[in-house]
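Chain and backbone:
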Amino acid sequence: MNSYLLQFVGKWISFLVVSMTSLFGTYNLKSVEIINTNDNSNKSMNVTHKIVEYETIVNRTSKLPLNTKRIVKKGKNGLVYENNETKTVEVIKKAVNEVIELGTGPAGQFHGRLTAYGADCKGCSGTVAYRTKENKNHNLLRDGVIYNDEDYGEIRILAAPNDVFQRGTIIEITRESDEPFIGVVLDTGGALNSAWRNDQRIIIDLAFETEKDPEVYKTTSNNVKYKVLRWGW
């Protein structure tokens, strides 16, 4: 077989192998060696394709609770082509380093009470207390009760005591009979702050568009688990 054709085929076979390795992680292959004897030139050519394993970069951040890990970018193995006869190296696919964040912030486990409120409640304007990360006012009547977070996607808006949970904090909420859901702190309230300052009680309010929503009165739960996934923005 023509040596150049063999090199070309070898490259793409190796590229397929490293792609499968990155996707499934089931291969421990470090290199693939192809030896071709060219009868016309009576030369032996040794061609090696090597997988380049990605490195992991750890960034410590106080935005995450202590020892919490979050993958910012998934790593991908690379592939190089070495011609041992000509001593040349060709990069077929660059390795992509994995980047993770490791939390150094306060622990984020709480137990408390979950309540609900409507944007049209007595004395309410519908506008939440905090601006969004984009520095915009968010009105629950106009903009809805969902916020699109760059890390967690579309999640519910919460009101929480501001002495404990700063603006933009992401909280996973688990009630005894329900699946966990995620919310972002964009609002606060006097009753929530008083409960914490006076009795060290955690009360979090789940926002609804109207007090007439039947779910407002079904939401109240005691012994709710709160897990901070991110402290603020």
